[in-house]
Structure formats: C-alpha cells, structure tokens
Amino acid sequence: MKKILLLVFVCLFATTAFAQKNALGLRIGNGAEIQYDRNFQSGDALRTTVGLFGFDGRLFASCIYDWECCNWTDWTPRAGDWFLHAGVGGAVGWCNQEERGNELSIGVTGNVVFGIKFNKTPITLAVDYRPTALVINEYWRDGWFSLGLSCVYRF
Q1: Model confidence over 127-154: pLDDT tens digits?
Q2: Radius of gyration of the chain (CA)
Q3: How far is CA 32 from the centre of its chain?
Q4: Sequence-distant (≥ 6) Cβ neighbours of residue 101 within 8 angstroms
Q5: Nearest residue to 71 (alpha-carbon basis) of 83, 79, 63
Q6: Do the beta carbons of residue 137 and residue 97 sit within 8 Å?
Q7: Positive/negative CA dihedral, 71, 75, 76, 82
Q8: For 59-112, how does the pLDDT look when each residue is reduced to its tens digit (9 = 90+)?
Q9: Exposed/middle/buried for 41, CB within 10 Å: 0-12, 13-18, 19+?
Q10: How many CB atoms neighbour CB 52 within 10 A?
Q11: Cα-Cα-Cα-Cα dihedral sign, residues 34, 32, 54, 98
Q12: What Å distances lie between residue 136 and 14, 19, 64, 104, CA to CA?
C-alpha cells in the first residue's frame, strides 16, 4: 500500500512540476460556465466552456481557438506571466421556456482574454470579452456584451 501511495505522489508531482497542458475551472460572466483549456507549446489554447447563460435556464456551449498575441514575463517576474489571447470559434445554445418553446441557437463567437499564469501555484486568473453573433435563432441578443472572469487550475 505504501508503494502505491508513493507512486501516486510521484505521478502527481511529475504532472505539476512540468508544463501543464490542461486547465479546468470556472468562468463567471453573463452566467456560470465550466471551462476546459488545452494549451499548446506555441502558447495558443483551445478553450471549451459549457454552462448556464443569463442564469435563467438557457444552456450554452462554446469552443474557441485562442492565439497568443502577447506574453509579458518581465512585468511581475516573481508573481507570474501575463498574457493576451484573441480567438474565434463556434457556439451552441439551447433554451426551453414556456413562452418560446424549445429553441436551438448556433453562432460564431470571438474571445479576447487578458490574464496571469502564476508561477508558484498552478492557477490562472483572466478577464475576457466574448461577443457572440448567432446565425440560427437570435434568442441570445445580450451575447454581444459577455464579459467574464475565469479562474482555472492547470494540470
């Protein structure tokens, strides 16, 4: 049993000691979303979110490819690396309300993210602006003003 616990500890240490490619966390903005990021060596990231939009029962999912525009490692070298990402992707929404019935919305979404990856902890904090233009069914008219704050754990 001690050998298994030691092996688990070594594996956990190995995943946090080297570059973390995955991140899982929460984004709060016009709603609450679970966010998953897949980071690439180039600094780019594939960002996927699923959650409630507007806190009124509308479900929403998006998948965005973010390019790393800028990376500032010398702003606060002890704290972490600051970054600016911008990207584009797709969005899908579903709503079931009495007055409108079941509705599916499909559209295009953009993303501008400014944040910091902390050095001593595997946490990333970011502020983003995510406008969404719906092609099918315009139920989410307030998608143009989607500001959010995200906190993710890198692993």
Answers
A1: 999 998 888 776 555 567 889 999 999 9
A2: 18
A3: 11
A4: none
A5: 83
A6: no
A7: negative
A8: 889 999 999 999 888 888 889 999 999 999 999 988 776 666 678 889 899 999
A9: exposed
A10: 14
A11: positive
A12: 45, 40, 18, 8
For residue 30, which phi and psi values (nearest 5 degrees)?
-70, -5
Residues in the chain: 155
Token output for 71:
């990376």
Amino acid found at 134 = L
Residue type, 139: Y
Q: Which two tokens stand for residue 4?
A: 């298994």
Question: Looking at the whole model, is its pTM more than 0.85?
Answer: no
**Full DSSP string of the chain:** -HHHHHHHHHHHHHHHHS---EEEEEEESSEEEEEEEEE-TTS-EEEEEEEEETTTTEEEEEEEEEEEEEEEEEEETTTEEEEEEEEEEEEEEEEEETTTEEEEEEEEEEEEEEEEEESSSSEEEEEEE--EEEEE----GGGGG-EEEEEEEE-
What token pair was written down for 63?
Answer: 């998948």
- Measured CA to CA, the distance from residue 43 to residue 82 in angstroms comes to 12
